[in-house]
């Protein structure tokens, strides 16, 4: 077994270097001075060059050929599956292209942020065009004659295809639209009023992180323009953001990112710094963040507890009782920002991006036409016009950093979360009684045991099927949304 041992030692070093690269990205989004962007691009390119060289190292092929899988356990075989896949994909991408992509996507973040601040898509368009050109070149190398978008999607949701997701999303859209229109015709809950001290928000948001099981001895909470989670194993960091008039933005961004972070913190320590030591896919990752945020965090039971915590933190903030608070938290309202969207409309934002980025990668849509295409599609889907680029095409960081194929995993994660919520509530029959007193341990423990601890051991669909007893389907999500918002709005 020396070949397997040698391969895993080599892989452990590669995984450690990848974590360092991730830490550079975290720093860029949180603490790095703006003037350092060009140098950081060079640093990221240098690290990516080292990582790419290790991922295509010919010794990997030799080790893989020498290993007798018949002597491996399930975890060992899964390690090899991931290493083979990574090696095969990396070997198709020229080192120079990988470095160019690392450099331009690092620099593009700052250009995007400045364009967003100045409401100037034209200032970002040339850089985005360069990113897309390089990503299409990478996609063609990976696809080897197949579908470019599928090749990109495989980076985030192994085994999924654009056509498969198009069918699933096609089943989601009409039901979401029908329910949304019914809600719009009903009486709306009140809107939260007043100002909420931002330091008090951060204090409560850190309490919420701990309430959902985030281990602060191996993590931290910082502020960023776009909330995110970074790292795995023993160093998993999250960011959130504050808004003086909207504390829910802070609280639910935090709970969402804690879902991601707890997934990484919950993986079996035996898999630390190995291919199994990270979430198996972004769809599964998103299932954790969304079930933490929505099915648990926005439930009637948990919001009753949160209502008391907010009264302690802010005093009388103008909401009469727990039921009113629950309705305010889950209020369906018009808005432009995906990350701030209510449960009912969130997936419509994702479906818009999915269709646009497939068109960009397929060459049917050019960057010069992207802003108009976005605005037209938004008007068609939501019924009102985008008022400024930061509320439209410039609102997300993903395309600037080359994350094409990432957006659909947000909705796939919602689908997975719907399936997991059904199974969780069947197994933990007194869940709401526990959430009423702010006790999430049974829920988060169930998710850790059935999903998080396995890391990359199983294929994404296999993992969800094992956890729930059924193949993934959009039906549980639609049933949950229909029941919840039907009751909330007396439909």
Automatic annotation (TrEMBL):
Binds 1 zinc ion per subunit. It catalyses: Release of a C-terminal amino acid with broad specificity, except for -Pro. It comes from the Bacteria. Zn(2+) binds at residues 256, 260, 286. It is an enzyme of class 3 (hydrolase). One of its GO terms (molecular function) is metallocarboxypeptidase activity. One of its GO terms (biological process) is proteolysis. The active site is at 257 (proton donor/acceptor). Its cofactor is Zn(2+). Its EC number is 3.4.17.19. Pfam families: Peptidase_M32. Keywords: Carboxypeptidase, Hydrolase, Metal-binding, Metalloprotease, Protease, Zinc. Broad specificity carboxypetidase that releases amino acids sequentially from the C-terminus, including neutral, aromatic, polar and basic residues. Belongs to the peptidase M32 family. This is Metal-dependent carboxypeptidase.
């Amino acid at each position: 077994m020396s070949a397997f041992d040698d391969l895993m030692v080599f892989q452990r070093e590669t995984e450690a270097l990848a974590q360092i690269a991730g830490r550079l990205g975290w720093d860029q989004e949180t603490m790095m001075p703006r003037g350092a962007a060009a140098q950081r691009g060079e640093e990221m390119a240098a690290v990516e060059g080292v990582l790419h060289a290790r991922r295509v190292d010919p010794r990997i092929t030799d080790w893989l050929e020498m290993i007798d899988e018949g002597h491996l356990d399930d975890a060992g075989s899964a390690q090899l599956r991931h290493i083979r896949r990574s090696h095969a994909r990396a070997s198709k991408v020229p080192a120079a292209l990988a470095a160019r992509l690392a450099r331009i996507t690092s620099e593009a973040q700052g250009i995007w942020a400045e364009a967003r601040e100045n409401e100037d898509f034209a200032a970002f368009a040339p850089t985005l065009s360069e990113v897309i050109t390089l990503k299409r070149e990478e996609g063609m190398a990976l696809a080897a004659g197949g579908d470019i978008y599928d090749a990109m999607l495989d980076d985030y949701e192994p085994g999924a295809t654009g056509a498969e997701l198009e069918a699933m999303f096609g089943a989601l859209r009409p039901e979401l639209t029908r329910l949304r229109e019914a809600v719009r015709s009903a009486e709306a809950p009140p809107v939260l009023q007043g100002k909420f001290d931002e330091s008090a928000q951060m204090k409560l948001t850190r309490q919420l992180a701990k309430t959902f099981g985030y281990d602060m001895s191996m993590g931290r909470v910082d502020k960023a323009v776009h909330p995110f989670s970074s790292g795995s194993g023993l160093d998993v960091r999250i960011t959130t953001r504050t808004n003086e008039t909207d504390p829910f933005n802070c609280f639910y961004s935090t709970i969402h990112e804690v879902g991601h972070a707890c997934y990484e913190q919950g993986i079996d320590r035996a898999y630390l710094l190995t291919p199994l030591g990270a979430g198996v896919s972004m769809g599964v990752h998103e299932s954790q963040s969304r079930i933490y945020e929505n099915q648990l965090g926005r439930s009637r039971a948990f919001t009753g507890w949160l209502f008391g915590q907010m009264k302690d933190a802010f005093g009388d903030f103008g909401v009469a009782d727990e039921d009113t608070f629950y309705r305010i938290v889950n209020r369906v309202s018009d808005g432009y920002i995906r990350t701030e969207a209510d449960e009912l409309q969130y997936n419509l934002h994702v479906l818009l991006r999915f269709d646009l980025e497939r068109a960009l990668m397929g060459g049917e849509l050019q960057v010069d036409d992207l802003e108009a295409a976005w605005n037209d599609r938004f008007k068609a889907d939501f019924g009102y016009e985008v008022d400024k680029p930061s509320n439209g095409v410039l609102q997300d960081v993903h395309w600037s950093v080359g994350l094409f194929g990432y957006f659909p995993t947000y909705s796939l994660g919602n689908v997975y979360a719907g399936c997991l919520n059904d199974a969780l509530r069947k197994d933990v029959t007194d869940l709401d009684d526990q959430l009423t007193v702010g006790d999430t341990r049974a829920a988060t423990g169930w998710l850790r045991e059935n999903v998080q601890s396995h890391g990359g051991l199983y294929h994404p669909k296999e993992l969800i099927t094992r956890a729930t007893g059924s193949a993934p389907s959009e039906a549980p999500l639609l049933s949950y949304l229909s029941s919840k918002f039907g009751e909330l709005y007396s439909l």
